[in-house]
Amino acid sequence: MVQASENLQAQPALPRTPRVTYRMAPLAEALAEPDTLAVFGFGAGSPQDDDPRSLCVALECFDAPSPLELWQVEGEVTSGRHGDVRWSSGGGWVFAAVEMNENAHGGIEGAAREAYAALRDFMGTRRERNVLRIWNYIGDINEGDGDTERYKQFCDGRAAGLGDFFAEGFPAATAIGHHDTKRALQIYLLASIDAGTPIENPRQVSAWRYPRQYGRTSPGFARAMLMPAHDALAISGTAAVVGHASAHEGDLEAQLNETLTNLETLLSTAEMAAGFDTHSPLKVYVRHATDAPRVRDILQHRLPGVPALLMHGDVCRRELLVEIDGWRYV
Ligand code: 3EB
Questions:
Q1: Percent of the chain whose predicted confidence (pLDDT) is above 90
Q2: CATH number assigned to the domain comprising residue 300
Q3: Domain annotation covers residue 39
């Protein structure tokens, strides 16, 4: 008879998903913990550190003081720099981040192209080749009309810089507008030695199949990503999109309800139990600061006890007022 212990040893160890939490703590304390893969502060007042694991996200948090976001892994963490990329690795995971000044690259399109080319170049040096989740924060995302809107220029540059980087499958993603007057494009990612399972939303057209009206270059992202060990679902930026159309234009509460329906659909498609809990860190991007109290009220009622960080961010379609992304652990 096969012993249980032999059985376990025969299983290839899949890397356990980094633990993502929000915490009120000094940055130095978070960085001093040896299992810290990355630490994020939010907004202009957030603490700064030269450590490659530390990133100040250019989005203001509606809660003051704002917490830090911590990513913690099992195993020792090493870190460094590779050209414009700051990175860390540990436990089978890689964090990589790049901040590009648009002015140095002729605008948002060039900055996106260079940023993605830099990330792709760095990832080529790693064993953790599977990019499972990526975040993009872009200044003045809705400025410009039609195909010249800055989000669409970003999509063009992103595709050019990516080349065939995501040929084996798109990661889950977020693309949100920030209000920092420095024209800085911020991109960071989480990659693994093992592949995840992309999840689409049956209520929505897959983003890479969006019709032409949304731009020359369709955004390439999966609606969610089931992590290799099936211990967590990474959820992409999710808004009130049904089919490919924006729903409930001008109605904040209806958009929020539609977004929550989309989130529940992702959980059920990933065969996860319904609902979010105290270990499901979410980010809620709110376009108009004046809407934040109402969004908070609704979410306290609909998602009681769920750590939801409210941030001032613009959704990439100007009629959309709110977007949610985050993590759901098993
Ligand atoms: C949507 O559902 C909203 O361009 O990477 C969400 C997540 C959105 C990621 C991206 C865009 C992106 O289409 C927009």
A1: 94
A2: 3.30.1330.40
A3: yes
158 Cα: distance to centroid of ligand 1 (angstroms): 13
Over residues 190-233, the pLDDT tens digits come to 999 999 999 999 999 999 999 999 999 999 999 999 999 999 99
Q: What pairs with residue 88 in β-bridges?
A: 79, 95
Residue 9 maps to a domain:
no
Query: What pLDDT does residue 10 have?
Result: 54
Query: Greatest CA separation found in the chain?
Result: 69
The CA 174 to ligand 1 mean position distance, Å, reads: 6
- Report whether residue 162 contacts ligand 1, using a CB cutoff of 6 Å: no
Question: Structurally, how many domains does the chain consist of?
Answer: 1
Using the atom order of ligand 1, give the atom closest to the CA of residue 204: 2
Ligand 1 midpoint to CA 288 (Å): 19
Average pLDDT over residues 238-267: 98
What is the tens place of the pLDDT at every residue in 49-80? 999 999 999 999 998 889 999 999 999 999 99
Does residue 219 line the site of ligand 1, with CB under 6 A? yes
> Which residue range is the domain that position 294 belongs to?
15-329
Q: Is the pLDDT of residue 11 over 90?
A: no
Closest ligand 1 atom number to CA of residue 320: 3
Q: Say whether 323 is catalytic.
A: yes
| Residue 8 maps to a domain | no
Give percent above pLDDT 70 in the chain.
96
The active-site residue out of 102, 109, 149, 323 is 323
Q: Counting atoms of ligand 1 from 1, which one is nearest the CA of 220?
A: 5
